[in-house]
Amino acid sequence: MTKSNHDAPSGEERSLSGDDAPQRGPSRRSILQMAGGAASLAAAPAAIAQPAPSGGPATAPTARVRLVVNGSEREFEVDPRQSVLDVLRETLDLTGTKKGCNQGACGACTVIINGRRVTSCLTLAVMHDGAEITTIEGLARGDELHPLQAAFIEHDGFQCGFCTPGQIMSGVACIAEGHATSPDEIQFWMSGNICRCAAYPGIVAAVADAAGRT
Amino acid sequence: MTITSIGKPVTRVDGRAKVTGAARYAADFNQRAQLHAVIVSATAGLGRVTALDDAAVRAMPGVVEVISHLNAPRLAYGPHKSFIDPEVGERLHVLQDNRVRFYGQPVAVVVADTLDHAERAANALRVSYSAERPVIDPRDPKAQTIEPSGSRGHSHAARGDADRALADAPVKVDVTYDMARENHNPMEPHAVVAAWEGDRLTLWSKSQFVVNEQAEIAAIFGLPAQNVQVICPFIGGAFGTSLRTWPHVTLAAMAARQVGRPVKLVLNRRQMFFTTGHRPRTLQRVAIGATRDGRIMGIVHEGNGETSRYEEFTEALLSATSYMYSCPNVRTSYRLTPLDTGTPNHMRGPGESSGMFALESALDELSYELGVDPIELRRRNEPTMDEGENKPFSSRSLVQCYERGAERFGWSRRSPTPRSMRDGRLLVGMGVASATYPVWYLPTSARVRLHADGTAAVEVAASDMGPGTYTSMTQVAAETLGIPVEQVRVSIGRSDFPPAPPHGGSMTMASVGSAVCAACLAARDEVARRAIADQRSPVFGAALEGVEWIGGSVRRLGDASAGQSYRDILAGSGQPIEAHASNYRDPEAARRYSMHSFGAVFAEVAIDPDVGTIRVRRALGAYGAGRIVNPLLASSQCTGGMIGGIGMALMEQTALDARDGRPVNAHMADYLMPVNLDIGQLEALFVDENDPHVNTLGVKGLGEIALVGMAPAIANAIYHATGKRVRHLPIRIEDLLTA
Amino acid sequence: MLPFSFEKVRTEQDAIRAAAAGARYIAGGTTLIDLMRDEVERPERLVDINALPMADIRADGADLVIGALARMSDVAAHPETKRLQPLIAESLIEGASPQLRNMASMGGNLLQRVRCPYFRMLDAACNKRAPGSGCSAIDGLNAGHAILGTSDHCVATHPSDVAVALVALGATMRVRGPSGERTFPVEELFRLPGDTPHLEHTLRPGELIVEIRVPGGPYARQARYLKVRDRASYEFALVSAAVALEMEGNTIRQARVAVGGVGTRPWRLRAVEEALRGKAKDRNAFETAAHLALEGTRPLSHNHYKVELLPRTIVRALEMAGDTA
Q: Which A residues 84-143 touch C at CB under 8 Å?
């Protein structure tokens, strides 16, 4: 049986995509709206393939980045491809922040950058030179938990605990934004953090409680 | 002083670690000189790899190794099967040949110095296939249905003549249901860090069954089991997906050995839909015949589950049908349809949640045929014993669950006629369904060490994917030893600890809890022996039966004046006490009794008749599940399971493209699961149950039953709201536009 | 992700110069980085424009003026947005998640790529990603795809919520590029796929979106956005509708209607608007008008339901805006 036309390409098809360097010329990269993928494969109509192995600089360029993470200043080299999440976890070994989907679709990687909650998987470390980042490791003051951390324990706002750092960082921001004045409002503004164990009732109670205390 | 810990709403003992980011999950165990491995997944749905050109990739920045079937070491793949592996068939032998059995199967693994380099190289690897069109739909004319060939007894049950009874019944329903394939989608992706020292392997790996992972990897690599250590202190949710040991663990170990350095391998979210199991799609027929006054005379329940071509995955799809209701004539028949897919596996409430969706939906349909309230219909058919096994239930509180649940939920406010309740422009419906799950109980061992400072350390190779194993075992130990929970430290998740069964099937509390209890009792005896032998002790010279243990002290029976705390006893010798024990179930009890949890689940939905949006405004689960060790955690676990049921009812479906079997929505934004805003008022309540037969603790387990029953309750509520019966899951807006 | 070089610019001139020389702009990055990770997007150079002073949100008379770098969350929360154009605020907070709204810029939101799953998978044919390779969705799983504006080459849906509102309100956008500045309706930013689905927008090489202007109008205050989806939040629309009404007593003087989730671009429904003009605000009038939305719809194998859902969504949104819901 033959493959349907959207099946994985054969090697022959794939070779048509060849070295994609010629298609990676600057002229077609010049505008924000233009599809990188579309443009780069434009000259290879039969190719629906994975990119060729070459293309781009032989070694990745690095950049020097300074971040203030949980109050302490860190300066280091990054590959520009590295997300804030990967830098936290792999470069700085701050593994409290979790990688749930790496697609911006679950919220587990939520941290606070310059006062705003963001999904750290979808932003590059090089974009944040000089930024202040707060992660779950930076919330407690010594042995004293942040009120929301304490409230999560008290209201059992988690089960497996994997989404919890993201939930708590999101909750801290939710309260600071003024979006924690009612359970309904909390539910709306905490919906960017999926909890597969579904400890949602406890999460809402914890955020409401901590909002009342702060 | 008697310290009571069991039954108290103790907050999680690991809470602090989890809210500060200190709890370490598999991918958090970064090792020195660690490399990163990324799997290359097949882009054909069936066929063979015809060419794989790794030369160019090897030249890419940071790439250390590329392993495919062309150069992978031939692994021993010694025989190994455990309780959670399919009984029939053989596990996937990864990178051992060029066959592609399903879309997304690993065809290579790339190792590089950084994650970015490894991901780039994996994307760049050119693989060619000779591909065929796979069969991935059980309704495909080319799909063949088989009888399961194993002995686990999921296939048939029969009593009386069900088909005859149906033919004769004055009132009947005979309908079919189609439930979607689902993926577990825990928040934590599968992850493993593998490090070799000589021929000894350490795996920091996401596993619900560390001792089995140890045995499986040892068998695959031809090593003695003690050479493999599996460490998994925390699991970021699993719901069954980490019960088995999947190919990525083998690949990480293989890669680490090839490169001679520790390797971290984490599946990406899309890969989570390929090789780590899924709840199988099921097709079911349920026919129920009844007398006009609502006595069930016959039930036929036929079920068909998908499996892979290389293993027969079976689940207890139809088991509950034989014992749920009183009925003289029952026939169940279970079939499998092997497809070109990875092997399914257990997902929260496996079997029962799918089978009960069909049975409880059909019963609801029957209630309308009869014009009888759905709770009343169940009451009229409440059995006095397990009629399938022909033995009494160790305990069964289904009727009490319905009574207490109905009162609390306000069932009496329900108007019986479909489409008769409104709230403004919204259609409102209320539905119920029963829930059930067996009480699993498997051999477990535990070790406890009592220290002279009064603390106790418990060790067992159990796991905690969220229910609170750390906390509940702390409570059991504290209660048994008569000391405060603060003095107990529980360690789990290491394969060199005393062995525990899989962390699934709702058996951890019963099995591990009983073992921890037994170990603590054994430790108490050791303490008593030591005191009895100690001339300075007030109990010196007493018989072991002549002393009792009260609040952490040993004293002569009934003599409140002369006790000695175990702290003092231990301080005397300076030696800690270590005791090791296994759980025990009276085999006679298991022979004599049918052991199950039961529950009644109520749901209220509000549906916008114009645009079809469905919201579960309220739900309540009433459960008879034995003793509740920690009501705070139990309630959270149950509402979590109910929300899982909302997902099953209204959102979850892994959609496969028939042309090559690829899951098209393998993305967290496209595979829908409930978010915070989806959740209405939820409540779990527990009916008091004192069941001395199930185990020493009297616990039945909660994890699975919490999900069972929710989806049919919602589907039944949707019918009540709209008058439209939807016989497939998930039920979406598009299903209600013609309602 | 393919390697790229990265630079941060401080001035618009530097940005445009870099882009004219082949760099891609990056602002929030929520679409671009996601697609770069899947290697659907493969820029060689990124120019970070976040330092440019283009994040202002202000009133200009009755108009609302939004800088292209203003974040979705800031635009939604801004008092002038709420005062002048509540429809913009409503459509914004129905999109994405709080975290993503904190990151995503308005300009980037308009330029976000389609949500077609086959577009994201390199091993699937996709004319948008690889022109001439075919469209996997037409014969594939297409429940989420478009019924309006499709071609035999592409059926993907434009995912933006706020773009629907902007199109309904007749917003314009100002762009600057190597050859100067121009202003045009937001609606004209989006191309139909036709036989060139890889060309999504009408921006010229190097052009940078500077600001978006939402004209004030008598209908701005009576405007609602309704997003219908299976999950209550954090999901793209099955169907959405942005409607605005100018009333005179019980009579509709003027209506603005645009829909999302159904079109290959944000879809303004002028025929529906026309049919509403002069009508009394009642359900019959709404239904009659809403059915005109179905003109030219081409449902696919799995999205017939959208034909049913589209007019219903419009009717409900009209009722909400008309306060009759």
A: 102-105, 107, 110, 116-119, 122-124, 126-127, 129
